[in-house]
Amino acid sequence: MFQSRWDFGLAAQDALALRRAVLVEGMGLAEADVFDRYDEIGAHLYIWDANGPIAAGRIYPQGEATAIGAIVVAPNQGDALFADLVLRVLLDKAQTLAGDPILAKPLAKDIPLYRSFGFELAGYAPDVYSVPINGVRWHSACKET
After folding, report:
1. 59 vs 141, which has greater pLDDT?
2. Who contacts 37 (Cβ-Cβ below 8 Å, separation ≥6)?
3. What does DSSP assign to residue 121?
4. Is-contact 47 56, C-beta < 8 A?
5. HSE-CB for 18 with a 13 A CA cutoff
6. Taking the model in full, what pTM does it have?
7. What pLDDT sits at residue 142?
């Protein structure tokens, strides 16, 4: 059984540590590309179980929009399953906020996941994706048998 919690700003030490472990230490990305000023104002979702960290992500205001992202999954935790879960929770929260559209800068490997929820290239930057707040395409992995 896993648990989750929201932490705000730089108090989100567990979520930030998991992001560092996965992206900086694991993938070799530069810290300057992994962390930014939005970490200070963001709400960070952190998921863990008795064996340790599982996944994390964040949500924050960005002008008139709501931005989500920084989704990471600990190695050997079923990357696709927990990335999907974190994205669903962040999108659900984003739909309760005033910011429209919802923006994201997904890692290249996560673009198909974001697209499955309706995200498209925003058009003003090569790595920014957006979906209107009421345009999220909710879907289920459950299939009729």
Report:
1. 59
2. none
3. E
4. yes
5. 22
6. 0.93
7. 62
pLDDT at 49 over 90: yes
Which superfamily, per CATH, for 3-100?
Gcn5-related N-acetyltransferase (GNAT) (3.40.630.30)
Distance CA 108, CA 38 (A): 21
Q: Which residues contact 128 (CB under 8 A, 6 or more apart)?
A: 103, 104, 105, 121, 122
Rounded to 10 degrees, the C-alpha dihedral 136/131/45/47 comes to: 50
- Three-class secondary structure of residue 132 per DSSP: coil
For residue 100, give the amino acid letter.
D
Residue 113 and residue 99: Cα distance in Å, rounded?
Answer: 21
Residue-by-residue DSSP string for 60-73: EEETTEEEEEEEEE
